[in-house]
User: Which sequence fits this backbone?
C-alpha cells in the first residue's frame, strides 16, 4: 500500500466514524428521559415550593455554591408565583462543587426544621462569603445558617447524621442516573431542559401547563 | 541507509508525522463531538488548546505529500503552546491553581469538568495526554530526520 492510499483510507475512515458516532448518539439521545430513569426524578420529602397538587412539577438539581443556581432562584420563584397552584418546584441536591456535599447536608438539616427555603435564600444571597474560587467552605455556610431561628444543637447533630447522609447520597445517585452534569439542571414533568436558558425554561413550563390544564 | 530494516529513516519519519496527523484528527473530531453533538460547554482554556490542535489536521497532510520535514519546525510552537495550556488547565481543574471568580452564567468556568470517563479522564487530561504523545512523536520524527541527514 502506498502512502497516499493509506492517507486517503484513514481520512475516509475518520469521516465515516464521525458520521456513525453522531448518528448513534442522536438516536439514543431523545428529549425525554428513559423510563427506567424516571423513578430517580422525584423523592418523597424533598423540599417543594408551590401547591402540593400542582400538575406541573419543575425538578431542579442544584448546588448552593453554584452562581447560576443563585441567579435562577428568583426566576424560578416567579414561575411558581405566576402560575400559582399549577406549578411547583422540587429541589434535589447536586453538590458538584468541592465542599458542597457538607453544605447540602446542612440545608437538609435545616429542611428537617422546616427552614429549607430561608436557609437556601440566605446561602444564595451570601454566596461570596462562603464560596471561594468555586470551593465551598462548609463552616462559613453553617455559621450563616445558624443566624436563622432554629435549634442549633439539633442542626449540628442532624447534618452529620446517617439519615441526612443517606438522603444526600440518594440525590447524588439520582443525579447520576439522570445524567446531571452541571447545575442547575431542570426537568419539567419528566422532560429535561435540553438547551439551557431562562426563556427555554419558561417555554418548557408553559408547554407542560398547556398539556395538563 | 540502514540495510537491516526495510524502512528507511525518511519513511520512518513520514510514518511518525502520519501518526501525529491521526492523533490530531482524532482529537479534533472527539472535541467537536463533545461540543457540537453532546453540547458540552467550551471554556476559554479549551479554545486555546483547540487553536493549537486544529491547524495540525490541515498542515500535516501538506507536509506528507510530498514529504517535507520543515513541518516539524513549523508545528512545534503550536504543540508547545497546546501542551502548556493543557498542563495549566489540568492544574486549574485539580485546584492547584485558583481560578478567579467568574459568574457561571456568562463565562464558563474552566475549573468545572463536564465529561468524566472511567472516573479520572476529563477533557483537560485527555488534551494533556494528546499533546504529550504528539510532542514525543514530533521529537522522534525530528531525531530520525536529523540522523538520516548526518549519515
Assistant:
Amino acid at each position: 500500500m502506498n502512502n497516499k492510499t493509506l492517507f486517503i483510507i484513514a481520512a475516509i475512515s475518520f469521516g465515516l466514524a464521525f458520521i456513525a458516532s453522531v448518528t448513534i448518539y442522536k438516536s439514543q439521545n431523545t428529549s425525554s428521559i428513559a423510563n427506567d430513569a424516571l423513578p430517580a426524578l422525584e423523592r418523597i420529602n424533598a423540599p417543594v415550593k408551590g401547591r402540593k397538587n400542582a400538575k406541573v412539577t419543575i425538578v431542579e438539581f442544584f448546588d448552593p455554591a453554584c452562581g447560576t443556581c443563585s441567579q435562577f432562584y428568583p426566576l424560578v420563584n416567579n414561575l411558581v408565583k405566576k402560575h400559582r397552584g399549577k406549578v411547583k418546584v422540587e429541589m434535589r441536591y447536586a453538590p458538584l462543587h468541592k465542599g458542597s456535599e457538607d453544605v447540602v447536608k446542612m440545608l437538609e438539616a435545616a429542611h428537617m426544621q422546616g427552614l429549607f427555603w430561608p436557609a437556601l435564600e440566605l446561602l444564595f444571597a451570601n454566596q461570596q462569603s462562603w464560596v471561594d474560587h468555586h470551593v465551598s467552605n462548609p463552616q462559613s455556610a453553617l455559621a450563616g445558617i445558624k443566624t436563622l431561628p432554629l435549634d442549633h444543637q439539633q442542626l449540628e447533630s442532624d447534618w452529620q447524621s446517617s439519615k441526612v447522609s443517606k438522603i444526600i447520597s440518594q440525590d447524588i445517585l439520582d443525579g447520576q442516573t439522570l445524567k446531571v452534569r452541571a447545575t442547575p439542571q431542570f426537568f419539567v414533568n419528566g422532560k429535561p431542559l435540553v438547551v439551557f436558558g431562562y426563556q427555554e425554561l419558561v417555554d418548557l413550563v408553559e408547554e407542560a401547563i398547556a398539556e395538563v390544564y | 541507509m540502514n540495510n537491516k530494516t526495510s524502512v528507511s529513516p525518511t519513511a520512518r519519519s513520514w510514518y511518525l508525522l502520519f501518526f501525529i496527523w491521526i492523533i490530531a484528527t482524532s482529537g479534533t473530531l472527539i472535541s467537536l463531538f463533545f461540543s457540537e453533538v453532546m453540547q458540552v460547554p467550551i471554556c476559554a482554556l479549551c479554545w486555546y488548546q483547540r487553536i493549537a490542535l486544529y491547524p495540525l489536521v490541515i498542515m500535516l497532510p501538506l507536509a506528507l505529500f510530498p514529504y517535507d520535514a520543515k513541518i516539524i519546525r513549523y508545528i512545534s510552537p503550536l504543540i508547545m503552546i497546546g501542551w502548556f495550556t493543557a498542563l495549566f488547565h489540568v492544574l486549574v481543574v485539580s485546584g492547584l491553581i485558583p481560578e478567579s471568580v467568574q459568574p457561571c452564567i456568562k463565562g464558563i468556568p474552566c475549573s468545572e469538568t463536564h465529561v468524566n470517563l472511567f472516573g479520572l479522564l476529563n477533557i483537560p487530561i485527555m488534551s494533556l495526554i494528546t499533546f504529550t504523545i504528539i510532542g514525543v512523536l514530533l521529537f522522534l520524527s525530528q531525531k530520525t530526520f536529523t540522523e538520516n541527514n548526518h549519515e
User: Anything to note?
Assistant: Chain B has four helices and no strands. Residues 9-150 of chain B form one domain. Confidence is low (pLDDT under 50) at residues 1-5, 101-107 of chain B. Residues 9-37 of chain B form the longest helix (29 residues).
